[in-house]
Amino acid sequence: MATVELRFSAQPEHVRTARLVAAAVARRAGVDEAVLDEVRLAVGEACSRAVGLHRGHGITAPVRVVLTDEDKTFSIEVGDEVPGPGADGRTASGPRDAAEEDADGEDDMGLAVISGLVDDLEVSSTDVGGVIRMSWPVTPVSVLP
Amino acid sequence: MDLSLSTRNVSGPVGDRTVVEVGGEIDVYTAPKLREQLVELVNDGSYHLVVDMEGVDFLDSTGLGVLVGGLKRVRAHEGSLRLVCNQERILKIFRITGLTKVFPIHNTVEEAVAATD
Question: Can you give the pTM of this predicted structure?
Answer without folding.
Answer: 0.86
